[in-house]
Amino acid sequence: MKTELKNICKSFDGKEVLRDVSAVFRPGFTCMMGQSGIGKTTLAKIIAGLVAPDSGEIIGTNGLKFSVVFQEDRLLDWETALGNLLFVSPDRERAVALLTEANLGENLHKKAADLSGGMKRRVCICRALIADYDVLILDEPFKGLDAELKLSIMQMVKTHAAGIVICITHDESEAEFLGGKKFVF
Fold first, then answer.
1. For residue 178, what are the CA distances in angstroms to 67, 107, 158, 169?
2. Does residue 52 form part of some domain?
3. Residue 150 belongs to some domain of the structure
4. Which of 129, 151, 177, 180 is most buried as measured by Cβ atoms within 10 A of its Cβ?
């Protein structure tokens, strides 16, 4: 399984964001790195089929299932932490295990709206991991986590993520920890 991009171009309101970007993503981790505003998030959305490129070719995504951690949390605020995971997977036992591993075991039944920013971030990561996917896209997933917690959550992602994993990060230490290859803009 691989996903290939050939000469992807994208502009918004006449401003070119991506020009002739080509890449191949295979199972395992790929960390996309580069300056803010260079088009990493746009490229990730194109890969996931959420944004159409202006030109270029995307090969190997037909029939693939995607799971995404966006830069924004995008939780169901009225639902509990556990309920957010059960929304994408019926596997209650695994949902509880992931949330507990993310140090959220005492907050399973707390509404997402009442969670701290770091707690919300961890729920998003757990929800993405429990979903049925072929491609996992993580857009700055560890932002807002303190150093010790960030390390344990990165280890959790490294342990549980499968398939093609694309992680957007500005942090060289995150890319080093996750391993895999780097795609630098």
1. 18, 27, 6, 11
2. yes
3. no
4. 129
Q: Is the pLDDT of residue 185 over 90?
A: no
Give the strands of the sheet with 3-12, arranged side by side: 15-25, 3-12, 55-59
Closest C-alpha to 84, from 129, 17, 28: 129
Q: Over the stretch 20-77, which tens digit does the pLDDT of each residue have?
A: 999 999 999 999 998 888 999 999 999 999 999 999 999 999 999 999 999 999 999 9
Q: Are strands 15-25 and 28-33 parallel, antiparallel or unpaired?
A: unpaired
What share of the chain has pLDDT > 70, as a percent? 100
* Residue 19 within any structural domain of the chain: yes
* Of residues 5, 16, 72, 84, the one with CA closest to residue 44: 5
Q: Show the tokens assigned to 153.
A: 């959550």
Question: Which amino acid is residue 91, in one-letter code?
Answer: D
